[in-house]
Specification:
Largest sheet: 8 strands, antiparallel, barrel
Helix content: 25-40%
Shape: globular
Number of domains: 2
Radius of gyration: 23 Å
Distance between the termini: 76 Å
Number of helices: 10
Strand order of the largest sheet: 3-4-5-6-7-9-10-11
Structural class: alpha+beta
Number of strands: 11
């Protein structure tokens, strides 16, 4: 009884300060609300370590009921997009997308479970554009901590080092990326049969940036390296890449004809090609 009274008092005092949403989300982090409708208790579920199996419809409903009465209230929701509880992140994301009219058909719920997924980045970009269009004042550092400024950092500087696609147990072929001397290496490494490893090497011709804070890379020529095959040298490039930096150590990369893939920066010794592939690469000159 005492605890409930304390929570009620805290809730009342905080609401008076205009922080009702913060109070609700803190309460939800401890215990999610009960379904308001039958549909909110059914459907596809998010598997949460703390809250168990939670229907996405419940999280969407909770987001729709958050007190976002004015555009300025959106600023209070931003920190919750980085909360450690995936349920809270989803509630905040649903509240924001509904308020700003962001088309949820552009999103994947399971992808949004990953705080490093570009879906969440898209929401933040759309939110910033929404606030800017309406001349809503905010502290610029709010977004500086969440968005990478590609205009201030050239691609060669950002991609320094080696990157790998996060390993999944059921995935047999993993991709690796490295850039050096304006040449980008994209390698495919086969777990079950290393002899199938191959690398595409492309000479970077031009790098532009766009309003989504992506690097758009066009290439001059390509080379393909594979064990037991004669390398194709300096073939006019048919390859292009889009690099989407999420943090200094996480990026998404898309080939012109493929889909997005996530990469993380790794230590050099983690990307050790086979001795045969090293030998094959040693015979190539640029």
């Amino acid at each position: 009884m005492i605890r409930n009274t304390f929570v009620l008092l805290a809730f009342t005092q905080t609401v008076a300060c205009g922080c009702e949403m913060d109070v609700l989300l803190r309460l939800y982090a401890e215990k999610l609300p009960q379904p308001a409708t039958l549909s909110e208790g059914n459907g596809a579920c998010l598997v949460c370590a703390k809250h168990g199996w939670v229907p996405y419809t419940l999280l969407e409903g909770a987001g729709s009921r958050l007190p976002l009465d004015d555009d300025e209230d959106l600023l209070q929701a931003i920190p919750w997009l980085k909360h450690g509880d995936p349920c809270i992140r989803q509630i905040a994301a649903f509240a924001i997308t509904q308020r700003i009219g962001f088309g949820t058909q552009r999103l994947s719920l399971t992808g949004m479970n990953d705080p490093e997924h570009f879906y969440n980045y898209q929401i933040v970009l759309a939110l910033k554009a929404y606030l800017d269009q309406r001349n809503i004042k905010y502290d610029p550092t709010v977004f500086e901590r969440m968005l990478v400024d590609v205009s201030a950092k050239p691609l060669s500087s950002y991609l320094t080092g080696k990157w790998e696609e996060p390993s999944e147990r059921r995935k047999n072929i993993l991709k690796y990326v490295e850039i050096a001397d304006d040449v980008i290496h994209v390698s495919n490494k086969c777990r079950s049969k290393p002899s199938l490893d191959h690398t595409n090497v492309s000479k970077i011709k031009e790098v532009n940036t766009n309003d989504q804070r992506q690097y758009v890379v066009s290439c001059e020529w390509d080379e393909q390296w594979a064990l037991g095959c004669v390398p194709r040298r300096h073939v006019p490039s048919q390859v292009g890449y889009i690099v989407w930096p999420i943090t200094n150590d996480v990026m998404w990369l898309k080939e012109a004809s493929g889909g997005w893939k996530k990469f993380k920066r790794i230590k050099p010794q983690h990307l050790a090609p086979s001795a045969e592939l090293l030998s094959a690469q040693a015979t190539l000159t640029f």
